[in-house]
Amino acid sequence: MSNWTKFDKEFDNEALRDEVKEAAENGGRGDYPDIPTGEYEVSIEKLEATSSKKGDPMVTVWFNILDGEYEGSKIFMNQLITKGFQIRIVNKFLRSLGTNNDVEFKTFSQYEELINKIFDDIDADGLEYKLKYGKSKKGYPTFEITDVYDD
Fold it and tell me: Which of 10, 47, 83, 90 would be 119's cystine partner, CB 3.0–4.6 Å?
């Protein structure tokens, strides 16, 4: 008989439960269609400070596409924040969300609180967005909010 308690320490059980739920909501599939670059009307389903598989600080965003051919599909943004230029990318993105929060990195714990506050404000104000989803010269995904819609 094997002892699986060691896996409780090695894996993020809460994240796995969330992934199981997400797969069930998408028809039981664990895969998602490839979303081509372009502009999409989206809502933000998730915005959180989290950790990468390596344990590095990361900001993740789940965009839910609201109309068109890919309605109901998701676009995922995952940005490590271990270097100044990475934090600058996230700062620019957070400022574009139309919540009027003072976006500044001071400490990781302060930044996490800020990200949570911005997500709460998005939810409270019912904000939706026009997202320009592209690729950088090196092929990395890019995310630019070009318009903010409120209820």
Answer: 47
DSSP 3-state assignment of 45?
A: strand
Please give the residue that has the higher pLDDT: either 4 or 134. Answer: 134
Q: What is the pLDDT of residue 1?
A: 45
Q: Where are the beta strands (DSSP E) in the chain?
A: 38-51, 57-65, 74-80, 128-135, 141-149
- Where do the domains of the chain lie? 36-149
**Dihedral, CA of residue 16, residue 56, residue 90 and residue 115, to nearest 10:** 60
Instruction: Give the start-end residues of each E strand in 73-140.
Output: 74-80, 128-135
The angle at the Cα of 46, spanning 22 to 63, to the nearest 5 degrees, equals 85
pTM (whole model) above 0.90: no
